[in-house]
Structures are given as C-alpha cells and as structure tokens.
Amino acid sequence: MIMISILPILTIIGIGAFVFLILRRLGNAKKPILVNRIKWIFIGYGIVLLCATVLYYFMPKDSFKPAASTDTAELENRDDLITNMYNQALQGNVDQLEGITVKEDWQFEVDGSQLTINQSDYNAFIFVEKKENADNKIDVTEYGTKAYFDNIDVTDLLQASNITYRNNELMINSPYRASINIVKFNKEFTITQFTGEKGMGHDVNNIRENTIIYVQVPADVEVSGDEIEFVQN
Fold first, then answer.
1. Are residues 54 and 156 in the same domain?
2. 98 and 138 within one domain
3. Facing residues of 163 across strands?
4. How many CA atoms lie within 13 A of 107 on its CB side?
5. Which are the contacts of 132, defined by CB distance < 8 A and separation ≥ 6?
6. How far is CA 46 from the centre of its chain?
7. What's the rounded Cα separation, in Å, for the pair 219 and 60?
8. How many structural domains is the chain composed of?
9. Does residue 171 lie in a domain region?
C-alpha cells in the first residue's frame, strides 16, 4: 500500500532527473544555437510528461468501470444458454438456470378476472404461468443474460423493461435507452504495427442481452394477448 502511494512521486522525480541530466549534458556541448533549440525541446517534452503524470493520478477513478475479464467459453456457450432459458421458461424452471439473472420484479393487485397482456414498441418473449391459488396478485419477473460490449460486461448499465398495469391490462414497453461511455486505452501505432494488436475500431464484439418476461397470475384469472407462451406445468 505504501509503495503504491509513493509511486506517483517516484515517477515525477524520475522524469525530472532525466530531463535535468539531458539539460546538463547539453549545457556542456558546443554550438550554442543548436543546443538552445534542443534544450527547449527537452524542456517542453519534460513539462508534458510531468503534467500528464500528475493528471493521470488525479483522474476520478471512481467514475470508471474497469473492464471485467470475460471468459471466452462463456461467450461461446451463449447460444446454448439462450435456448435453455426459453426451454426452462416453458417448463416453469427458469429461476433454476445458471447464468440467468433477475433484472427486475413487479407485483400488481388484480382488478378483475380478466387480464390482457400487450406490448407497444417491444418484441419481448412473454411466458405466463397460472398459480395454484387465487391470491389476487400478478407477479412479473424479467430474466436476462449478460450483455457485453467489446468483451466488457455492461449488464448492470442496462435498464429493465418498462412494465405497467392498469384497467386489467399489463403493458410491456421497451427499456429506457441507456447511455454508455466507454474509454479504452490502446498501445501506440509504433508498437501495434509490429505486434499486430488491434484497437477498438470497426472490429467491435457487440453482444446485446436477451431477456424474457415471466408473468405469474392467479388461478382464477383468464389471460389473453398476442405473442405470449403459457407455461407447461
């Protein structure tokens, strides 16, 4: 911990010592006009290094989300996970599937014996399960897979669907659009031209999350709606 705290100071001292030694050697050299030009180049370069070092260690690190390492096998098995999520939802066992997280829960009081499920600008996968009892409550859960952008886990930055209930109608709308700012530091071209590494450009691995809406209704409520699947208990 102590070593980390004094690292910025040692870095600044090292840069200052380097610039000082260069200027000292130039001071003993001949050709004063050329020496003065080179001296000012090194002075300017040293100032830039010092300022960059100071600014780096004063950057608000708490506002940055570090890129979590993503298991390659996890990305490769994503299609199987999505298929299993739909199959388990049809069987009523989606909550037992590993790799699936709960994005949001809702609960509404039933107004009557009829329920219509609609979605306006959304194309969600909706599964409906009848409860064994009539508890006058509608329980809605949104499950989802992880979402990645350039192999960075951005799942926590994406919002859940916008779900409301009114006059015996359960309305499912798309989530509010999230604004995600990603800053990535790449090696300079002078290095990557020999190593073959690629920066974040057109070749970006963008994988969006897949979600399902799981609706549990009382046993005495009749459900209708387009594009809904009933759980096969």
1. no
2. yes
3. 172
4. 3
5. 219
6. 37
7. 53
8. 2
9. yes
Note the pLDDT of residue 177: 79
- Residue 107 and residue 215 in contact, taking contact as beta carbons nearer than 8 Å: no
Q: Which residue has the higher pLDDT, 31 or 82?
A: 82
Q: For residue 150, what is the DSSP state?
A: T
Q: Give the helix, strand, coil percentages of the chain, each rounded to 5.
A: 35, 25, 35
Query: Residues 56-85: what's their mean pLDDT?
Result: 66
The token pair that represents 200 in the structure block: 């974040």
How many Å apart are CA 4 and CA 86, to the nearest integer? 48
- Whole-number Å distance between alpha carbons of 225 and 128: 10
Alpha helices in 58-196 (DSSP H): 72-76, 78-91, 189-195
Query: Lowest mean pLDDT: which of 77-86, 113-122, 154-163, 177-186?
Result: 177-186
Q: What is the pLDDT of residue 188?
A: 61
Q: Are 215 and 170 in contact (CB under 8 A)?
A: yes
Do residues 76 and 174 share a domain?
Answer: yes
pTM listed for this prediction = 0.63
d(CA 9, CA 217): 63
Query: Which of 155, 190, 163 is CA-nearest to residue 70?
Result: 155
